[in-house]
């Protein structure tokens, strides 16, 4: 573990301990917050070796059932009905697309079927091999490894969904991705929102805090700082709250703050879903929704 004396995003030394959370194996994860940019981060930080046991086939992002052919076909059909829009980006035939931190690879498989020259970068060998077997170009290794091995490769669109919260150095990672853009290209990122109602209410117990895998807890303010520090240009920033995610946060809030078990809240199928839809709209209107979405350009 490594103790940080500066914020990993803005490099301010004005830090304060925010909270501690005990993990399932008894390890205590401590989270610091930066008074300058609002960024939260595990401190001291776990090394990759210490984190390895928390990533496996059981980790949801690598679940092979997520790339079932029927699921892929359904999402391809839906994207075609929307004119190529998939997960908030427009996938165009022939475009060069890179997905950094591909997980199980559902996004890549859909983009490939939509006609993009889609490739991914990931560290998990089993997932990489599964995607290669499905005809997707994959690079096994770190982002640094990929850049060194492909010095001339450039992309129209780079995506990275719920990856940057896992990285030790998000600023350097975004700089590297920026160097892979073609002129006029764009990067799209998504991370959990530590400025959300769910995080502020529940801290380490919120479903998207996910300690210790999530080394960083981004807010809209710290995401803007991340883009600036990387030398890139912010095209847009907003939050997205799928009602099912907000519903999960509501149920967690009721359970952890008021002791109401989930079996009880699951028994009111009409009231809570309606509230979650209303709350999702309200939260997103003030950048307090479940996840932060960011579009970035090189200039």
Q: Topology of this protein?
A:
Blueprint: E1 15-22, E2 28-34, E3 40-42, H1 48-51, H2 69-81, E4 85-86, E5 89-90, E6 96-100, H3 106-113, E7 117-122, H4 125-133, E8 137-140, H5 143-149, E9 155-161, H6 170-178, E10 181-192, H7 197-202, E11 216-217, H8 220-229, E12 233-240, H9 243-258, H10 262-265, H11 271-284, E13 291-297
Parallel strand pairs: 6-7, 6-9, 7-8, 9-10
Antiparallel strand pairs: 1-2, 2-3, 3-11, 4-5, 10-13, 12-13
Helix pairs in contact: 2-3, 9-11
Could you walk me through the main structural features you see in this protein, from its secondary elements to its overall organization?
This protein is an alpha/beta fold and 299 residues long. It is 33% helix and 24% strand. It is built from eleven helices and 13 strands. Helix 2 crosses helix 3 (106-113).
**Helical percentage:** 25-40%
Helix/strand order, N-terminal first: EEEHHEEEHEHEHEHEHEHEHHHE
Give the total of beta strands.
Answer: 13
Biggest sheet strand order reads: 8-7-6-9-10-13-12
Rounded to the nearest angstrom, the distance between the terminal CA atoms is 37 Å
What's this, in brief?
This protein is of the alpha/beta class and 299 residues long. It has 11 helices and 13 strands.
Main features:
299 residues, 7-stranded mixed β-sheet, 13 strands, 24% strand, alpha/beta, 4-stranded antiparallel β-sheet, 11 helices, globular
């Amino acid at each position: 573990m490594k103790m940080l004396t500066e914020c990993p995003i803005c490099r301010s030394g004005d830090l304060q301990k925010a909270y501690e959370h005990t993990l399932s194996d008894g390890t205590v994860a401590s989270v610091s917050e930066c008074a300058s940019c609002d960024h939260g981060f595990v401190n001291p930080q776990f090394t990759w070796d210490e984190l390895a046991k928390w990533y496996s086939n059981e980790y949801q992002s690598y679940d092979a059932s997520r790339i079932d052919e029927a699921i892929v076909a359904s999402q391809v059909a839906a994207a075609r009905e929307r004119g190529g829009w998939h997960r908030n980006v427009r996938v165009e035939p022939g475009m060069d697309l890179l997905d950094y931190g591909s997980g199980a690879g559902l996004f890549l498989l859909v983009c490939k079927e939509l006609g993009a020259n889609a490739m991914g970068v990931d560290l998990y060998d089993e997932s990489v091999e599964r995607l290669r077997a499905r005809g997707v170009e994959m690079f096994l290794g770190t982002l640094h490894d990929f850049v060194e091995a492909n010095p001339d490769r450039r992309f129209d669109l780079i995506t990275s969904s719920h990856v940057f919260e896992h990285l030790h150095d998000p600023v350097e990672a975004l700089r590297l991705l920026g160097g892979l853009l073609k002129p006029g290209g764009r990067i799209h990122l998504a991370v959990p929102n530590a400025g959300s109602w769910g995080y502020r209410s529940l801290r380490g117990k919120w479903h998207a805090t996910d300690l210790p895998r999530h080394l960083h807890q981004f807010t809209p303010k710290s995401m803007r700082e991340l883009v600036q520090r990387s030398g890139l240009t912010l095209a847009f920033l907003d939050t997205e709250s799928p009602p099912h995610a907000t519903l999960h946060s509501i149920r967690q809030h009721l359970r952890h703050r008021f002791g109401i078990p989930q079996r009880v809240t699951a028994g009111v199928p009409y009231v809570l879903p309606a509230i979650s839809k209303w709350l999702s709209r309200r939260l997103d209107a003030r950048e307090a929704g479940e996840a932060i979405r960011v579009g970035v350009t090189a200039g």
